[in-house]
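PROTEIN DATA CARD
Card holder: Putative transporter subunit: ATP-binding component of ABC superfamily
Chain length: 233
Origin: Candidatus Terasakiella magnetica
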Amino acid sequence: MSDTPALQLQDIHLKLASQAGDVNILKGINLEIHRGETIAIVGPSGSGKSSMMMVIAGLERSTSGRVMISGKDVTNFSEDELALFRRDHIGIVFQDFHLVPTMTALENVSIPLEFANTPNAYVKAKEQLEAVGLGHRLEHYPSQLSGGEQQRVALARAFAAQPDLLLADEPTGNLDGETGEKVMDLLFNRHKAQNNTLLLITHDPKLAEKCDRTIHVQDGRISDHNLKEVAAS
Ligand SMILES: Nc1ncnc2c1ncn2[C@@H]1O[C@H](COP(=O)(O)OP(=O)(O)OP(=O)(O)O)[C@@H](O)[C@H]1O
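Structure generated from the sequence above:
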């Protein structure tokens, strides 16, 4: 296994314009995550967790700083380069599923594989759906699926291309406790099966406990608490 970190953030700042003036959202984030780690990102509402994840995913461009993924500096990638890099290396799961409503479960999972010219995209998508227990729902549209099932489709889609980095932003936030637990078990099982790196934003302490490490974000910074953890380790 290579020693190259899965993810490095160096002095990331994010400033966005709002009607009330510029807002400093991220204020110098430094972070290094190793391959295969599971990381919980916790912190108060509005502290910048989702913004940090958007910067990592290349869906938001930082104002300054550097983003390295698997040793590749993606900071100055064009939008097209970022889209290709995301397709090949990053899986993302959102709280509200983000499935395409006019596509079946099978199509939702296979479409990114087809874009990547992956051979046997449908067969691979079917395998991913079977791995999350949805082999009997392949032809169902999102509106015909429960919230838990929709999130399982989103998991199948995120894992389909075997990404190096899996980002999940409160993936159980819209689900009831029992369904959320099942989705979470699947998320960890799929992570284990593929041995990718998992970053998970959560407000649930039980979930954070399941991860190797917890990163605390406070007011756009990684809080002192983490620095003490690092110093003690
Ligand atoms: N497009 C934007 N323009 C201006 N400010 C924004 C924008 N997007 C987010 N913010 C602000 O940035 C801050 C961080 O938001 P972010 O969504 O990253 O927080 P969070 O920690 O993920 O919160 P939550 O736990 O509630 O999801 C908030 O104060 C938010 O209002």
